[in-house]
Amino acid sequence: MKMKLTGHQQEMLDGKHGEAKKFCMDKLVDFGKAVEAEEMVPLVLTLNGVPIWAKDRREPGMAKKLEVYDLGHSALYDPIFAMKDAKVADHECTKCGSDPYLMQLDKYNVKDAGPWNFEIPGKGSFKIDEEIHRAYQDGYNKMSEHGWLNWLSCTPYFNTCIPKMGEYCASSESSAACYINTILGARTNRESAVNTVYCAYTGCLPKYGTHLDENRAAQCIVEVDDEVRDNVKGAADWAALGACIAEKANNRIMAVLNLPRKMGPTATKQIISCASPGMNDPIMHLMGYTPESPTLEAAFKGKMPKNPERYKVTIDDIVEMFRRLNNVVPAPGPERAKPVDIVIMGCPHLTFEEVREIAQMLKGKKVKAGVKLWVQTDTPSYHMAHHYGDAKIIEDAGGKIYHQTCMAMTPMRHYPAGLTVATDSFKYCKLASGFGQKWIFANPDALVNAAVTGVFTPTPRWDYWSKPREMRQANEKDQPLYGVPGPFMS
Amino acid sequence: MVQNSAVATGEKIVLTGIARSKGKAAGKALVNRQRLSWAFAGVGNEDGVVLDPAADIKGECVKDRIVVYPTVYGSTSGAASLYFKCKQSHHGPAALICQHVHWIDIGGAIAGEIPAVDTLDKDPITTIKTGDWVEIDAPEVGEKATVTITRKQA
To answer: Under an 8 A CB cutoff, do B83 and A75 touch?
Structure first.
């Protein structure tokens, strides 16, 4: 099948707009054939990774270093960087940005500023290699020169580049892709990190996959139990709910019923972040939230079977998900406390509101000596937190706030051995589970408490919900979790 | 392991499917029943060794093998990592055969210049056995591709 190209697309393919655009169009046309695309779509957003731009990446010393740091994407840029006058398609109104990567560039040499450069007394230290830092800075600079915005965030959809309903995007960041499809109603695949290099320079991409209605249709229903609906609170709860929904749907697109009436950015961001670890198609029809799905019929794109497959997420599923994600055995003895080395929040990147809540919880407290508390956010929120004083509260307490990076984008396999990491991110627990650390999965209030005390201790709320159902119902009214409003409870 | 008697020892079976990335390849099959991620954490970028603890083929090296698996799993960076293994470290697979070559892997296979085939007339996961000799002829993307399977030894 031959793809229909617009006049401008044909000109790019014919080389009339420079070598880089021709090179990239060639690749995209090839890809279009493979996916049987009939035409290209114009893009408003392209999101992928900044390369480590090594001048000779196969030189043995450098190759050895790149094996530690490079995802495999960097060499894709080499031919384009070698071309003259290559520019991304910003004149087409395509904003081209990047996912978080190795470090906060201006704090590379600042000791203990974040996951790229830290020491845990008695356990060891880690710092990203100097030569890699330089090559990464070179890649960053070259991209800037080409017109990339380099926002280095996985949540540009909140504040930096906000696609509108029906617009097309190419996001190789899976969680961003799922948010863009599910909450904004714009259309993107979990785009391969190969295509996102090419389509940035052309501003277009074959229309395929999740761009098309037929690949966005719900295939089953997942219903949230009333008990879950009324009791999920906190970033980890939302992430666990997303994980359970994805698991029930078993890699099919689902329509989710009976969600709480008011879910803010934290809830939706955490639910959709199951996209890469839990499912392949980056769309969930969250009924009441997903703009293209005002009705179930619409979620199924008019093809709802008489008796669609139906699954239910119960509180027991959520509790079981927490249990599975926590792979740390409590210390022996009457204490159930689990020692922690690193407490990390911000996968996906924290919103300013979330940063502020963490600061409020930390106010007047001190992070335990030897424990890292890492507060990971995007650039706008980082600067807002500095402007409004939240960053100062966090740093005065001994925590660190940083932007432009993500712990899982640093080579965690090369961290000091035997570290325990506590987080509210399902994605971290799942995708980074093979990197040698032990994981604790918990809500932000429990995480802040763990950072302050140096040990993770289950909350009264956890104690209540993790009881067998019969005991729970018998005691429900006496539970301390009711009537104790606090951060993350509303 | 999945038992299959469709191919007797030494016998050939020919399947047809659709090429998602073009090329010719021949090599020993490596069959994985689980979804697979080509990202560096799933299959080592420099040595091509499968790291995913849940994979049937964990510990195997994919270099020059025809890797057979249902479809993708995990990170979109798998596309770039597949390209890297094929074109940079030269520890990539010779070809991919899937029930559905996911779009992420199509991008990686095209950039890595290895053939990738799906939509076969028989389920590749149950029809092909690890160790079978497999030849792929996939001349044009989006067009018919031929997969010839020869079972060597029991």
So the answer is: yes
